[in-house]
Amino acid sequence: MQIGIDSFAAAENSDSFNGKKNAQSIEKLINRIVKADQVGLDVFGVGEHHRREFLDSAPHLILSAASAKTKNIILTSAVTVLSAADPVRVFQNYATLDLISNGRAEIIAGRGSFTEAFELFGYDLNDYDQLFEEKLELLIKIQNNDTVNWMGKYRPDINNQTIFPRPVQNPLPIWIGVGGTPQSFIRAGKLGLPLMIAVIGGETHRFKPLVDMYRESGRRAGHSSKKLKVGLHSLGYVAENSKKAVEDYFPGYAKTFTRIGKERGWPPVTLERFKAQNGPLGALMIGSTEEIAEKILRHSEALGGISRFTFQMDNAELSHKQLLKSIELIGEKIRPIIN
What we know:
By secondary structure, the protein is α/β, with parallel strands linked by helices. Helices cover 45% and strands 17% of the residues. It has a single domain, classed as TIM Barrel, CATH 3.20.20.30. The chain has an eight-stranded parallel beta barrel, surrounded by eight helices. The protein is globular.
């Protein structure tokens, strides 16, 4: 099983227009990617948002900077908001990253958990599903063909055009990032694409029926079980012991998700609810190395086996030092237990 880290490149200060402080935040993030590579983690993903609290509106650039300082770690989007992007440019950006990194780039294509990209880039949110389906179709066509002919509704036609550059990897790996809609799981299965499930709350085992649908859909479409990989992305943080992990993580987590909850109609975060979601079956992965390793294995068994697990930990106002230490523990303690 691959073990990795995902980041949304959180800004460390409330003044999102302070360029010098944001430059420091990006530098620290790149240092964390380097640390993940040094301790043997398999993958590092950077998300895509267009909000003041995140600095990841151009994740391929962050990953490209990190590629020059790393040797082995896979560098992926987490996720590319494909619905609001041009698939040609997405492919070109990550094919270039693949060249820079000598074959370590991946794309996780999704629709994102926020919607501001639609208005920003001139798309109608009512076309949410149709945009993703059409653009994913084009991205896959570019992935598998040097020269492309294509017609669609939301982008000008492509007439016998060759898309450059071509990546080191053939094909350039594309995963599908999903939340909880059955249609998304079935689509990924039909296409034979690996699946990355974002689990940010509740109990992870509730995704088992959806994972079964994905695998059955892929089987019926004629895809081998080796192609139908499943990954999990969860909020997580590891410390020397459980008490310290919760004490470090909860205050910032409560602040962040209470703020987001106001936008989405969620109730304020409470410690009681946090502890319930951080229990043996809960989606949160906050604790000691032994606890979290056991929990990853438990989740994998509940879902019929997973190929990748990634921790999303920079959403709780943790310090750079705390994040580096957690990455070290995940690489040196958790990964050997899992594998």
